[in-house]
Amino acid sequence: MFALPLGNDASLRPLEVWHAEEFAAHLDRAREHIRPWVGPGFVTDDLDGARATLRRYAERQAADGARLYGIWLGGTLVGGVMFTEFDARMGYCEVGCWLEPGAEGHGLVTRACAVLLDWALGTRGLHRAEWHCRADNDRSAAVARRLGMTLEGVRREFWPYDGARYDKQIWGVLASEWTNPGR
Ligand SMILES: CC(C)(COP(=O)(O)OP(=O)(O)OC[C@H]1O[C@@H](n2cnc3c(N)ncnc32)[C@H](O)[C@@H]1OP(=O)(O)O)[C@@H](O)C(=O)NCCC(=O)NCCS
User: Fold this and answer.
1) How would you classify the pairing of strands 92-99 and 128-134?
2) What is the pLDDT of residues 4-48, one digit of tens each?
3) Can you give the residue ranges of the N-acetyltransferase domain (predicted)?
4) Which one of 3.30.460.80, 3.40.630.30, 3.40.50.300, 2.30.38.10 gives the CATH number of domain 4-174?
């Protein structure tokens, strides 16, 4: 439909139901890499599961809620960014992300998240944006830090995974603080 250039032959585009096969193939490359760090409902195992995720986001977007965007690198879907929460009435959103391993290390997610934050905190006039990650997810926390977010708190032993519970960090940025690091 439309694509925003992210540099390095990469682009950001809406990730929609008609991408289900492409998304399922991408998840085959990404699944074990992302499993410890993202919500279990996002790590589906087959085409039906991938399609269900895309439909869930489409339905929430229709209600001005969550939204999902893919990152394509050289024509291949390699990851994406999303509003896991988007609440215009409360003036608040939460941004999330993932990449398959081969696409890490190029700044793609930092640039893509900056696009989302420009839109949410600028165009849409939200007051604050959050970033939630497992406290031992160093690469994810580094993205939040690169975006200029502040570590606001830790929910202790919040995140169950593989028989253990992990702390979860909450990062945040206010509209009055937001400066796109790419500009
Ligand atoms: C979290 C995750 C998306 C971060 O990916 P990432 O590639 O480290 O993040 P970016 O795309 O922003 O790239 C930053 C890296 O590119 C490098 N880079 C290169 N050019 C860059 C640029 N122009 N701008 C910013 N960074 C750049 C940075 O130095 C950094 O690499 P380094 O950590 O080795 O120093 C990825 O590790 C992942 O998918 N993990 C599993 C799923 C997950 O944890 N999701 C988040 C749940 S909260």
Assistant:
1) parallel
2) 999 989 999 999 999 999 999 999 999 999 999 999 999 999 999
3) 15-171
4) 3.40.630.30
